[in-house]
Amino acid sequence: MQLLPSLLILVPLCGGQEWEAPEYCRGSPCPQFTVVNKTTDFEERLYVATAWITTKIPNPTAFDLIAASARLKSVAGHFDAWPVLINVTNDKEYVLSWFVPPDMNIPEITDPSPVQLENRPEVNVYVRVFRGTPSIDQGKLNANELCKSLRKAGKTFSTERYAGAAYESYFALTHHNEVWIDKTQ
Ligand SMILES: *[C@@H]1O[C@H](CO)[C@@H](O)[C@H](O)[C@H]1NC(C)=O
Ligand SMILES: *[C@@H]1O[C@H](CO)[C@@H](O)[C@H](O)[C@H]1NC(C)=O
Q1: Where does the signal sequence lie (predicted)?
Q2: What is the distance in A from the centroid of ligand 2 to the CA of 37?
Q3: Could you report the per-residue pLDDT of 16-41, keeping only the tens digit for each?
């Protein structure tokens, strides 16, 4: 009979289908995904539909990046969620995005605004992880490596766009970064 109380406690814990965020989210909200496939070079993830606030980065300079972050902050305030995403299209258009957790309400954005709320549908992405202080150059280098691995594996993927994802402040001592490339049919 001693067992009974602990069984009763265990049942609700194991019964739920609660998603467990990866350790590199460090307890902060981050987008939910499942790993579809994994090789030594990359993994394929299926992300649920997500919301982001986004703004353009006119030039890939530290100055423009800081200004873009300030624009997002002026709309959404400071909140705790990761990753910060830099979406690069055709090697020349840069967009900064912050993940908006499902339970967070962003104040209404009045048009026209340089900041947009973007709802992204469910998406399959190929992911490569890299370490060290994140930068535009490191993002590009790793996107190229991911591209090569995907080609070698015979995958079909977007060749015009990739995204770099950072999960901690630029000044953190250790970094978990990722590059994402959309899977195509
Ligand atoms: C990159 O930006 C495009 C255009 O805004 C968007 O459709 C796409 O979902 C973004 N991709 C990633 C991986 O963030
Ligand atoms: C997983 O990736 C491997 C290597 O590219 C491939 O052979 C296999 O078909 C993939 N499996 C799925 C379920 O996509």
Answers
A1: 1-16
A2: 6
A3: 567 889 999 999 999 999 999 999 99
Domains of the chain: 26-182 (3.20.80.10)
CB 39 less than 6 A from any atom of ligand 2: yes
User: Which ligand does the CA of 52 lie closest to?
Assistant: 1
Instruction: Name the residue with the closest Cα to ligand 2, atom 12.
Output: 37
CA distance 26 to 47: 19
Q: Which parts of 81-177 fold into alpha helices (H)? A: 136-152
Euclidean distance between CA atoms 74 and 63, whole angstroms: 17
Q: Say if strands 161-166 and 50-57 run parallel, antiparallel, or are unpaired.
A: unpaired
Sign of CA dihedral 142, 145, 149, 154: positive
Token code pair at residue 119: 């709802």
